[in-house]
Amino acid sequence: VMWRNSAEPSITFMELFYGPFFSALSVGTFFLISRSFNYKITTSLSLAFILGLATIFFAYSQTSYNNAPSVCFMLAGFLFFRWFIDNQKILYLVVSAVLLVFGFMFRQDIIYVIIPLFFFLILNQIFQKTWTLTSIIKKITKIISFALPLLLGYEFNKIIEEGSIFGSGPRYATEGISQAFSPTGSIGTDIIHYAVSFGASGSLQPVYGTGAFGLLFGPGVGLFIYVPILLTVFFAFPDFFRKNKIFTVLLLVIPSIFIIDFGSYSAWQGYTAWSPKYLYAIIPFLLLPLGASIEKRGRKILPIIGILCCIGFIFNFSYIIQDVAWF
Q1: Rg value, the chain, Cα
Q2: How much of the chain exceeds pLDDT 90, in percent?
Q3: What sign does the CA torsion over 275, 280, 286, 288 have?
Q4: Residue 263 — very low, low, confident or very high, per pLDDT cuts 50/70/90?
């Protein structure tokens, strides 16, 4: 309360509006994503409320970290990508790529979502049965329509990083995947550097994999500690697999990339973040399959979901009602 009364009104407004605004958009977008997988409205609403109140989305909605806007654009990009898979409209691909670029400009670890989506798109086009000359041209056009905005967005982001537009000089990112992308290198150099360095830091750990285990179960940063509703993944993903096999693979690949790479670090920048900061982006992908279990198992799993949601709400509400920065 003290900082709100002593700070400039514009800063106070930004702090109070920034996080809730993007978090609310993320929850609304997640509802639309759930509906795109043919979940019932009640199921989709349940998943949206769980994401907004029983995960660290609740805690981060009261911060000005770049996680909230980054994931907001990422989810919007994923939604349009999902719509493209259903309708094969090129416009959806272009909009998806543009939104993903905006997410990448906020936090460069969104590349962990972009790369799997790009390969998913290629495989989606390859496994389509029609292979006439016209269809081949259409397939290539679709892939280019997704890749071109991504490449242009990358170059535009590099210009901003160099300070060519705003005259602020180079702005080097200092955490996570951002270190793999140099504003002075070419995209080819950055991709090679990223591929070579992916997960390599894990070799410095006394026991390889302890970092990933800590990110999932550690009392200080554990994903399953701060977001206990995600313990349902052990039965939710099998249920979702029976309903949508292809997207199950995608929803597993994206979180796996985050966990493997960030789990390879020997230290993380925490500041006043409510852990697990670096796994914030994968929570919607791990929560989405729960809808299949809700619709399949019905009331049988409601007590489990209710208990886990209450625990998650308490954990994240405790962040909001205390001054974490003071500690």
Answers
A1: 20
A2: 55
A3: positive
A4: confident
Q: Kindly report, residue by residue over 136-172, the tens digit of the pLDDT.
A: 999 999 999 999 999 999 888 888 877 644 444 444 4
Residue 24 confidence (pLDDT): 95
Quick one: pLDDT at residue 287?
96
